[in-house]
Amino acid sequence: MFQAIREQIDTVFQRDPAARSVLEIVLCYPGFHAVVLHRLAHRFYRAGWFTTARMISQFSRTVTGIEIHPGATIGRRLFIDHGMGVVIGETAEIGDDVLLYQGVTLGGTGKVSGKRHPTLGNGVVVGTGAKILGNIRIGDFSKVGAGSVVVRPVPDRSTVVGIPGRVVRDSSVEPTDILEHGKLPDPQGQLIDELVRRVAELEATVRALQQEKTSSGR
User: Fold this and answer.
1) Residue 141 falls in which region: left (phi positive, over 0), alpha (psi -120 to 50) or beta
2) Domains held by the chain: number
3) Are residues 11 and 62 in the same domain?
4) Is the pLDDT of residue 58 over 50?
5) Which of 31, 76, 149, 189 has the smallest number of Cβ neighbours within 10 A?
6) For 195-216, what is the mean pLDDT?
7) Domain housing 195
8) Which alpha helices (H) appear in the chain, and where do they start and end?
9) How many other C-beta atoms lie within 10 A of the C-beta of residue 62?
């Protein structure tokens, strides 16, 4: 457990340039608190102490604003940046070196039993306010843009944006763990731009035909 805590502290230093000291992380980082408390709750959950596990997770939710069901499986070096409003469901599975921003939901759909929450591969980055719903897999080293709603599986090394989420880029190079929101494609915006361009072309064609008709009429 102490080794896991040490690794979690090192993860915060690696991910957050604002982190200045171990004491600051231990006292002031809700993402750190939520992950450490989840490790404890998950142990009780696996041992069959379900009520105790839920009590720990509810305490964590109260003090951090991050809700992680004790049944969720979380890999090593998860970093929850800021974290307020993050929700992780009971059967969610998260790989190693995953980065979640605030407001992320790893939720279920309906009241199905069994595996009903997402699986995130290694090195996945999920942007602010994104919702990933259902028993789907987000592939290794993929990125989910802010505000996206993802309900279908995402291949490895992909970027997905929009509502519903659509894969807009497959990465052919080794990805970083930084989600550069300003550089993500906007499929809806691109579609609108294309429609505007087509309308302008049609208007120009109509004007040309009208001028031709007027000239021939003279």
Assistant:
1) left
2) 2
3) yes
4) yes
5) 189
6) 80
7) 186-218
8) 2-15, 22-28, 30-46, 50-64, 187-217
9) 9
